[in-house]
Specification:
119 residues, alpha+beta, two-stranded antiparallel sheet, 4 helices, 11% strand, elongated
């Protein structure tokens, strides 16, 4: 991977506190030290969609992760999913495979009658 290439995959929202949760501090919150953050489900969903591997949706663990996150977030359509991805990444950073993959995932979920519930 070329220098700097990994960082072009981070969202511009990466520094937004709404994109992640603080899960721990060391030695304490009052002292300087280590802060551990995890992405919120919405940001994790956007990252997972953007990194979706090509090769058929049945051949990738990414798909099961995307389905699980979509259900947890309450997404019920490919358009809602794309809107969420675009909340974290500008359109020019989203490859066509992401949109096509989401359309296929939600189409199969709707055909099976197992679309993630909307909350």
């Amino acid at each position: 991977m070329a220098e700097g290439q990994a960082f072009d995959r981070l969202s511009t929202a990466e520094s937004d506190p709404k994109a992640k949760l603080l899960v721990g501090t060391y030695p304490s919150e009052e002292e300087p030290g280590l802060r551990v953050f995890i992405p919120k489900p919405e940001y994790l969903f956007a990252m997972k969609c953007r990194a979706m591997r090509i090769g058929g949706i049945e051949q990738s663990q990414d798909i099961e992760d995307i389905k699980g996150l979509a259900a947890a977030i309450g997404l019920k359509s490919a358009q809602e999913a794309m809107d969420l991805v675009q909340a974290f990444y500008p359109r020019h950073m989203i490859e066509p495979k992401t949109q096509f993959g989401l359309e296929e995932i939600f189409s199969k979920l709707n055909d099976e009658g197992t679309a993630p519930p909307h909350s």
